[in-house]
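This part of the workshop introduces the protein records we will be handling. A learned vocabulary of local backbone shapes supplies the integers on the structure line. Getting from the letters to the tokens is the skill we practise here. As an example, a complete record with its sequence and its structure tokens follows.
=====
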Amino acid sequence: MEAHRIKKYIGGYMAILGRVDALVFTAGVGEFAAFIREKVLEGLEGLGIVYDQKKNEIACTRNTEMLISKPESKIPIYIIPTDEELVMTEDAYALMSGTYKEHTEFTYSFQSKDYVNKGRAENLKNDLAKRPGLAEVIAKPK
């Protein structure tokens, strides 16, 4: 039922927006539930959304951005890890120090092109050592 509802949202928003730049899975289920992603993505080829089943199965880490679409997919399919704890920490610190602005004007540390989450970078090394196939799904900047 969850996958069915997500599919309806994808199709509905594609119709409303007229185009889709990317499909993104995130948070716990989006990052770790390959079976949910599979159920959502099955049958969307007619919309230009084509996923790679093998990449989908491999893509399971909270330490990097991943790309699971096939090259012929008109719409890239990404898995983007979240970091709610960092957002909450930076919000709390800014509120306590009196530097917080409306969220649309607030700049988070991770918005910098130079930002590196050192913990995730180190954990990714460990993930790659345990599961070398993971390297093939890491999203590369264009």
About this structure: The CA atoms of residues 9 and 15 lie 10 Å apart. The first helix runs from residue 2 to 17.
